Amino acid sequence: MLYCLMKSLSKTALMVYAICPRIQAGKKAVFGSVHFQKSLELFEKLQDNTKRIAAESGLETFWIFDHKQQGRSFGEKYSNAFEELFKQGYGQIISIGNDIPGLSASHILQAQRELLNSPSVLGPAEDGGNYLIALSATTFDKASFANLPWNSEGLHQALKSHLQFRHGQNAQVAQLEYLIDIDDFTSFYDYIKKLKSGDFYRFIVRLLLSINTFAKEQKQFFEDLIISKDNPLRAPPTLL
User: Fold this and answer.
1) pTM for the full predicted model
2) From its phi and psi, is residue 32 left (phi > 0), alpha (psi between -120 and 50) or beta?
């Protein structure tokens, strides 16, 4: 399902291919299953940030949620999304996710500029995937695109090789800087250790402090429970 957020005269469409925050929080469990709500807050914050970035880009933007998209596999769903937009007459599509904390409108606009000279642009993620994929209509081949090793650490290299083959021997695939996408606590930690300031930094600090407070309260609760059971000199806890 497509959600058109804004209109422009550009022939380039921005596609946010998104996993809804509640599904991401359940699958990725960045802070462990006991802190599902905190993981949900994180992915909701990342989605809000993506909405802001998309608006700043000035491109006509479509939100496509994976769980509502037609197809049996991620590759089929994703390739169907590209095909649908190309059929609407767009010459280029820039696709991003909604879990990239370091992404900015400048990355999207740089990809748009690169498309003037190259039929495709990739934004590689540090885990071997891609946080941005920009394709021209002439580059897109639905069948082979759907069968790439999606959601694997070998995706970036496989996609780059595929696009070079599609372009021809002398063509180059334009590439942006590496960024981190949030898949688990390790990738989350790798990103936040580079932060020093800003709105997202302050949000993370508040989030981690709330988790730390919860952990201390739980620890104290269980310590009190153990003492009340094992210490014969202490009265048993009152049952409510």
Assistant:
1) 0.82
2) left
